[in-house]
Design a protein that fits this description.
2 domains, 5-stranded mixed β-sheet, 342 residues, mainly beta, Glutaredoxin, 4 helices, single chain, Immunoglobulin-like
Length: 342
Amino acid sequence: MGRSLRCTAFPLLLCAVAVSAQERLAVLEFFGRPNGQFCREAGPAMLALQAEMSGRAVLLEYDYDRFATGRVDRFWAARPSAMYLPLVMVGSGYRTSTGQVDYEREYRAMIEAELARSPEAAVSAYWRRSGDAVRVYVRVTNLRASPLTTAEEGAIWVIAWENARIGVSDTWVRGTAFRALTESLAPGATLVATVDTASLAGADWERVSSLALVERRPGGAGAYDMLQAAVAQPAALAAFPTTLTLTAAEPTAEVALAGPHALTWTAAADVPWLAVSPTTGALPGTATVSLIVAMLPAGGGTGQVHFDAAGDGMSLSATVSVMGPVRVRPPRRRLYAQPPGR
């Protein structure tokens, strides 16, 4: 389960930035039995929508008998009675479907309804293998005008799956993990959490992916509602831009650093005519690279700033290349002898 949870306040201005940077990711969850008649009938629709909605929606298939509790509880909270498998939901229960329907048409309509909603949180996530489990580093910012509260059962979920046709679709959920909020998250505030799944027994690790989602239960009863989700990226340290050109007129530039929140980074330049400030920090963060003109070789040069990050058993690095200008020497003044008699 979750190993850590930290909460940090940020200016509300960051909310507007996050809203413009993220569109809602739809998550459709399909609970069934691969040998069930209706589940087999739904397979072609799942496959077609997985291809069509790639990048906008994630469609996940669960073995209902293995996941009889947990995420399927969100379906039962939204729809207390159902007759037949598959049980299908988007948005943690925002829309549901059960049994034999016009699968492709109904599931597409559910996804499109979900995509039409604005995200109420900004979510980013990184993951790595930890033994036979998935460890996910999650960052959530509340974009709502009201707090995300513990009374509303605010929580982070992690879902790990294998990209393989084990059931009727191209995904097969291997594990889930749940992390309840331990304190309310104010508008504009950000929290970070580290969440571990249980062992993913039998998974092909070359095909494993994961996502993180944040949800709440309005009023503390009834259906749950997903505020936003994000596919987790493999744990890495990223620096942007990766190349800089500094001049005497513009001798400084900022580098944005991103990666798992568990990492602490350090920076160092490999040439004396470059300086970095600060030289250490947390993620995400920024560093300013500066040109020391007086130490620049007359012919200009190329240098590198190396960023190294470590924490929670990880050691990652990134490099930014920097071009320095040719130093232009001022013209030498010529001395003329005065004509005789003057």
